[in-house]
Amino acid sequence: MKYILLLVLALAPDSVRIKLQPQVVYAGNTVLVTCSVPRQANNRELTALLPNYTYSTRQLDGEATAITHRFEFKQVPCGVSEARCIVVDAYNNKKEAVANLQVAGCEP
User: DSSP code of 67?
Assistant: First the structure.
């Protein structure tokens, strides 16, 4: 498994990646979104987003920026079904990673 992951990273060094912890969260609890961003001179901004709920934006410092960025989103409501990491470069080009999120405890 480690070798497959290393191969994927080697083939896509400029891709944005996302990880959720946990992937299933009870309504009203917290989810941690980790965005992995390639070091590229033109990268300027990173947004972690839970669509229809909230987002957080950070400035990136091109090649000097950290690769891993963690965002904590509290009190996740019913209806949230995904998380996104979006990187914008100096030319307003966007790279994005999406992960499914399941919010449990929403049944009437």
Answer: S
Q: For the structural domain made of 14-104, what CATH number should be given?
A: 2.60.40.10
Geometric angle at alpha carbon 93, from 89 and 98, rounded to 5° = 95
Instruction: Among 7-21, 40-54, 85-99, name the one with the lowest average pLDDT.
Output: 7-21
Please state, in angstroms and rounded to a whole number, the distance separating the CA atoms of residues 81 and 38. 26
- When pLDDT is averaged across residues 29-50 and rounded to a whole number, the result is 96
Provide φ and ψ at 11, rounded to 5°. Answer: -80, -25
Task: State in Å, rounded, how far the first CA of the chain is from the last one.
Answer: 40
Beta strand extents in 22-60 (DSSP E only): 24-26, 31-36, 43-50, 54-59
Two tokens, residue 14: 């400029």
Mean pLDDT within 16-24: 97
Query: 11 pLDDT exceeds 90?
Result: no
Where along the chain do its domains lie? 14-104
